[in-house]
Amino acid sequence: MSSRTWAIVTGAAGGMGAAFTRALAKRGYPVLAVARSAESLATVANEIRKSGAFVETLAADLASAAGVAAVVEKAHSLGDIELLVNNAGLSTSGHFLEQSPDREIQSIRVNVEALYTLTRRIVPGMVERKHGGILNIASIVAFQAVPYWTTYAATKAFVLAFGEGLSYELRGSGVRVVTVCPGFTRTGLYADSGVPGLAGRFLPFATPEEVVRAALAAYDSGRVVRVVGLANRALAFSSALTPRFILRWLMARMFAPIAAARSQPGSMRR
Ligand SMILES: NC(=O)c1ccc[n+]([C@@H]2O[C@H](COP(=O)([O-])OP(=O)(O)OC[C@H]3O[C@@H](n4cnc5c(N)ncnc54)[C@H](OP(=O)(O)O)[C@@H]3O)[C@@H](O)[C@H]2O)c1
User: Fold this and answer.
1) Is 258 exposed, middle or buried (0-12, 13-18, 19+ CB in 10 A)?
2) Choice from 36, 195, 201, 207 to test ligand 1 binding pocket (greatest atom count within 8 A of CB)
């Protein structure tokens, strides 16, 4: 086993998490790859091990307290953690009242609660060593409310505000906190929820590798927030300049299920 300090990647069974695991292993980190599917984790890990890199896997459900505790326990048993990538996430989309409350609660547990707990339990060791970092994966939807993606956008707004606040509190500690906001990316995220509304048709899609390159470059240069892609940066910037009641209306037009978007009454209530 390598004596180097570890990286932990959650949601490493596919999509961006698998790409993070590959990229960090290539950088020489021993990586702990976490997700629910032991089989998919093994596929990712076996492929990486062929290049001589060191990857351990842990099958854990981050929607459960026991799953999060298992990751914390494993992290503490590994020794020094240099980098925690809070990447695991899931989304629901469509009318709020048509969503499964169980799945939405699961998304809040994974996107928010697990990210909070892992950060809270792993950062103290980094602060003690005066070295390390957290990469939190938020989303472009974190910058405003998004009707029909209401719960998902709210979880990502937490990730963005939490990461920004924490990065400020930890300035000068030697621990970096970087929040990455990708736009649409070609992964399995939409396998269950579908790609939402007109936005999914017209906004550009990145590859997971492009997002990971941008995220690690942001980490290297000590950025606090990194919106990935030019079009997404323009969107985030214009969100900041647009009155919230207009923004809500616009987002509803863009993210409503296609049939609902056509029948939108188009009201802009303050
Ligand atoms: N794709 C996009 O367009 C996009 C855009 C902006 C932000 N993001 C964010 O990027 C991150 C990565 O998503 P992705 O696009 O790569 O999606 P993905 O391909 O669906 O990957 C999600 C990962 O999270 C894991 N996961 C899901 N539920 C889990 C649970 N309960 N416990 C542990 N692991 C769990 C999945 O593995 P298992 O199913 O095996 O557990 C999988 O490895 C997410 O935070 C997502 O919100 C994605």
Assistant:
1) exposed
2) 36
CA of 121 from ligand 1 middle (Å) equals: 21
pLDDT at 1: 44
Residue 160 pLDDT > 60 = yes
Pick from 201, 217, 227: which is nearest to 140 by CA? 227
Q: Is 92 in the pocket of ligand 1 (CB under 6 A)?
A: no
Q: Please give the mean pLDDT across all residues of the chain.
A: 93
* Sheet of strand 175-181, all strands in order from the earlier edge strand to the far edge: 55-59, 31-35, 6-10, 81-86, 132-137, 175-181, 225-227
**89 CB near ligand 1 (under 6 Å):** yes
Residues with catalytic annotation?
Answer: 152
All domains in the chain, ordered by first residue: 6-262 (3.40.50.720)
Q: Count other C-beta atoms under 10 Å from residue 28's C-beta.
A: 11
Residue 2: per-residue pLDDT = 45
Closest CA to 2 of 23, 31, 41: 31
